[in-house]
């Protein structure tokens, strides 16, 4: 599945845990409903659940926050850059907007009553420029927003094409010895098709030599990378993916004929 198992996550919960952020990796999803239920069973309903949906565009009722990325190769894009955060709680949404907009409390209202009906230490002040948190400049540009809104209208179309591409891969690759196919049981909106092969180097070399672009399955065990060597640990599944895993494209710009050329 390329996703965390709920039982493994629950075993790591202690009194210091305030939030859990799990990736919907490559588009597949952990069982968020079961995770919420298990947290309730151990009286930890206070834990905030965050979906890292960078690779896809999805959210669940059981999570509190979901993020996604509009990177150029993703399901939809906002001119090649940007991303989005979704909330199941209006209070969290309001706070996030403050962090996005330089830390400002106020909205964009130009009403004089709204703007100057606030007093700070005896000073009548403009609510539009009142700061409550240490914020960032993360507003989307007008161009990116316009691009993204048009792409959003085509989301269902793109998703349908991607599903067709994935199913063609699964059909063509079924039964091939030495190749591990992904668990497609929940019909996720895959970013690409993840595969595993014991002779990965030889296979990827052959594919690249035939103008078929590939990539490894993201970071694998991130603690084996130079930046995190001080935290080095063995993680059985992540190590297997790092050793054998790779991705083949499933972009909505592809056709089934393209898949047939690949496999």
Automatic annotation (TrEMBL):
Pfam families: DegT_DnrJ_EryC1
Protein name per UniProt: Aminotransferase class I/classII domain-containing protein
Native species: marine metagenome
Gene Ontology MF annotations: pyridoxal phosphate binding; transaminase activity
One example of a Gene Ontology biological process annotation: polysaccharide biosynthetic process
């Amino acid at each position: 599945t390329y996703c965390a198992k709920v039982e493994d996550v629950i075993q790591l919960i202690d009194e210091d845990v305030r939030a859990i952020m799990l990736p919907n990796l490559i588009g597949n999803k952990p069982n968020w409903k079961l995770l919420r239920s298990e947290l309730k069973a151990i009286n930890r309903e206070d834990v905030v659940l965050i979906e890292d949906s960078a690779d896809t565009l999805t959210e669940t009722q059981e999570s509190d926050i979901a993020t996604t990325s509009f990177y150029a190769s993703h399901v939809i894009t906002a001119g090649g850059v940007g991303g989005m955060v979704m909330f199941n709680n209006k209070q969290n949404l309001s706070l996030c907007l403050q962090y996005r907009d330089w830390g400002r409390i106020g909205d964009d209202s130009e009403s004089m009553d709204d703007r100057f009906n606030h007093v700070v230490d005896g000073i009548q002040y403009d609510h539009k420029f009142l700061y409550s948190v240490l914020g960032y400049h993360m507003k989307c540009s007008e161009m990116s927003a316009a691009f993204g809104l048009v792409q959003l209208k085509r989301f269902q179309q793109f998703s349908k094409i991607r599903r067709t591409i994935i199913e063609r891969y699964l059909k063509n690759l079924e039964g091939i010895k030495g190749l591990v196919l992904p668990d497609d049981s929940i019909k996720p909106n895959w970013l690409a098709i993840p595969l595993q092969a014991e002779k990965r180097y030889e296979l990827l070399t052959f594919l690249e030599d035939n103008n078929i672009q590939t990539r490894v399955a993201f970071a694998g065990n991130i603690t084996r990378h130079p930046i995190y060597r001080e935290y080095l640990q063995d993680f059985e599944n992540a190590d297997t993916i790092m050793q054998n895993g790779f991705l083949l494209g499933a972009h909505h710009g592809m056709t089934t004929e393209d898949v047939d050329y690949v496999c």
